[in-house]
């Protein structure tokens, strides 16, 4: 287990599944959508994924955890330079931690947010440029992002709003893997949208998934009761 000020490794149930002799993932959780009065999920209203957000899954139900996520989000909004400098320090520390253990450092900055980190800089460089040996990856609902080669994005599906269908089609046309949340494991089909499904809950290492795949996830937390169309039956 490793913990920085903004990032942590080995503290959540999802990313820990991929940790081992080859990979270690550090992840950052913020307060999603407008739960901290700041919108860090620009497509949340269009995709209608607010009620089904993983923010409430696992340790996210704890008040102290929510308070920590709000703190990070407010820091990001009010002191971007200071936040990015601290994030730089956290990443450097995590990279050193991984180097000592001879494992590949992997980082997810959008655990419960959808910020375009490829546009955020420390000085005049992005974190992806500063740390080229890190495998960066995230889920996103913004299909037209242009990211560097060491930043892997998996698109997040929703059928809750016809207005979001354009984003879904853009993602498919670009050949992005698409994550789909299903009500339970038993109703996950072999094919969806004409693409084969793979088990996305086996681990969190999305950059290892075969291309042109549907990444099947099962609903957790409040998402189990979602009826918006974000969760598929």
Description:
The protein has one domain. The protein is built from 5 helices and 13 strands. The mean pLDDT is 89. The longest helix has 21 residues, at 80-100. It has helices at 44-47, 63-78, 80-100, 127-130, 165-173, and strands spanning 2-3, 8-9, 23-27, 104-108, 121-122, 125-126, 135-140, 151-156, 178-182, 191-192, 195-199, 214-218, 231-232. It is an alpha/beta fold and 233 residues long. 38% of the residues are buried. The termini are far apart. The strands form 2 sheets. Strands 1, 2, 3, 4, 7, 8, 9, 10, 11, 12 and 13 form an 11-stranded mixed sheet that branches. Helix 2 (63-78) crosses helix 3.
Total number of beta strands: 13
- Proportion of beta-strand residues: 15-25%
Anisotropy-based shape: globular
User: Average pLDDT across residues?
Assistant: 89
- In the predicted model, the low-confidence regions spanning at least 5 consecutive residues are none
The biggest sheet amounts to: 11 strands, mixed
Q: Structural class given helices, strands, pairing?
A: alpha/beta
Radius of gyration: 17 Å
Order of helices and strands: EEEHHHEEEHEEHEEEEE
Lay out the secondary structure.
Blueprint: E1 2-3, E2 8-9, E3 23-27, H1 44-47, H2 63-78, H3 80-100, E4 104-108, E5 121-122, E6 125-126, H4 127-130, E7 135-140, E8 151-156, H5 165-173, E9 178-182, E10 191-192, E11 195-199, E12 214-218, E13 231-232
Parallel strand pairs: 3-4, 4-7, 7-8, 8-9, 9-12, 9-13, 11-12
Antiparallel strand pairs: 1-2, 2-3, 5-6, 10-11
Helix pairs in contact: 2-3
């Amino acid at each position: 287990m490793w913990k920085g000020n903004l990032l942590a490794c080995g503290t959540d149930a999802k990313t820990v599944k991929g940790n081992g002799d080859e990979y270690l993932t550090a992840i950052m959780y913020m307060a999603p959508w407008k739960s901290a009065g700041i919108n860090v999920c620009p497509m949340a209203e269009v995709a209608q994924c607010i009620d089904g957000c993983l923010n409430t899954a696992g340790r996210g139900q704890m008040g102290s955890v929510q308070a920590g996520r709000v703190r990070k989000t407010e820091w990001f909004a009010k002191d971007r330079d200071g936040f990015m400098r601290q994030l730089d320090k956290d990443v450097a520390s995590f990279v050193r931690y991984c180097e000592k253990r001879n494992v590949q450092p992997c980082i997810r900055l959008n655990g419960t947010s959808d910020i375009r980190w490829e546009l955020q800089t420390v000085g005049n460089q992005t974190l992806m440029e500063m740390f080229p040996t890190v495998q960066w990856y995230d889920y996103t609902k913004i299909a037209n992002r242009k990211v560097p080669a060491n930043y892997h994005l998996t698109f997040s599906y929703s059928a809750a709003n016809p207005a979001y269908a354009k984003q879904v089609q853009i993602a498919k046309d670009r050949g992005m893997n698409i994550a789909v949340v299903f009500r339970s494991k038993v109703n996950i089909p072999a094919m969806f949208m004409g693409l084969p499904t793979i088990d996305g809950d086996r681990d969190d290492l999305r950059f290892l998934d075969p291309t042109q795949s549907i990444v099947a996830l099962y609903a957790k937390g409040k998402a189990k009761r979602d009826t918006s169309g974000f969760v598929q039956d």
